[in-house]
Write the structure tokens for this entry.
Amino acid sequence: ENVICHGIVLGSDGQKMSKSLRNYPDVNEVFESDGSDAMRWFLMSSPILRGGNLVVTHEAIREATRNVLLPYWSSYYFFTLYANAVKKPDFKPRLINILDVTNLETLDSYILAVTHNLVADMTDCLEDFKISESCALIQEYLDTLTNWYIRNTRSRFWDEDETAFNVLYTCLELVSRVMAPLAPMITEKVWRGLVSISDTANLPESVHLAEWPHIASVSSKLESTSRHTESHNVLSQLKNDDLIATMSKVRHIVTAGLSVRKLHNIRVRQPLASITVYASKHSSLSKYSTLIEKELNIKEVQFVGLNEIDESEVAVSKVLVVNARALGPRVGKNVQTIIKAAKAGSWTLTKSGHPVVTTDTGEDYTLTEAEYTMSQVEDSSKLAEGHFGAMVSGDDFIVVDTNLTTELENEGIARDLIREIQETRKTTGLEIDDRIDLALSLPLSLYTAAEAFKDMISAEALATSWTLSLVEKAEDQKITVKKA
């Protein structure tokens, strides 16, 4: 009742939505192709809830499916795929409990800490009717769950690590509870699947009958806490903002490394020799070197403190460009003074990442996102041949060695072959744990790499036997798999 929106709903042609013009997607077609949750999410995450305008198009509605519903469902599908393949008798996943917390691996602690913050933030947002902000929280969380936690723990599920199953089950159970008001259909489907395979007693049949997860440390407007599920008390023990901040830096390093690959057209399956991370808090990052190596497909990660290098060695820097048109109305005639100070490098970043420009008179001006752009400058004269740099965050930066040896090139070819073999496994209809007999007929350019990395290919493809033959022409290349 207290929310007032002044936005306008527009059709796909930019005009006001009109029945006579039919300038909007057919609702029944949307429900049939994308589902009602996609439509619901599109509306609730839209700027119209914040007073902005809303353009209704089928493509915009499908964005909800791609960015939220599919990652959520994919996480659940991955969990059930591996959970149903577990060979341990009577295995059933369960919620993490207090006794588990002290023995968790770092990535487990990280994703549970992120889940803690999600529940806390969703509680605050929904109690204050901040619906679109709640949708943004869910989308960000699902990106972390699928593109960071699951991707980096996949091998543990293959190894039937019960803790990994319990952690992912806990994440899916909790995100389903807090996501249910926003996407009632898909969360109900996932919830019923989780209930059917879990070891957690007294779960209601429907997610919409489940209680909201409670965190004792959250300042909640809910009057009674006794109604909340006792098993969720563990959430209060999972808060770890320091770990989240450190892992965020690790993810920024990975993102910067991937950007270097993309900029120089180096595929991720091609291994590289090394990356050097120049960071102010490099000691806290060094324990994640294996994770960075895996994510970037790098053989070695080196860490150097920013205090260990002088200004002449800094190969990458940020340049602040002030948007005079956006800043002018706010600061008036001081805009030119601020621009001059920004060009001179007289600025710092706040903890939230916004630049603070200090003028000659000693005045500080904090710029908003619309009032500036940040660009990256690379000084190639300070970099060896084949080395490229990128900014991470703050003053931290990386330098990637992209020079390729014959061995690195062959490993890259072998990894490409593994991908093709895995695709052939899928099209043949094999299960994820099926062993195979593998036959490769390859031209010389691929034959040498396959021979050099035979053991790696066999292990990744689950090949109990294989044959390797040489063909003269690339078009005669063939991959044959059959269940062993």
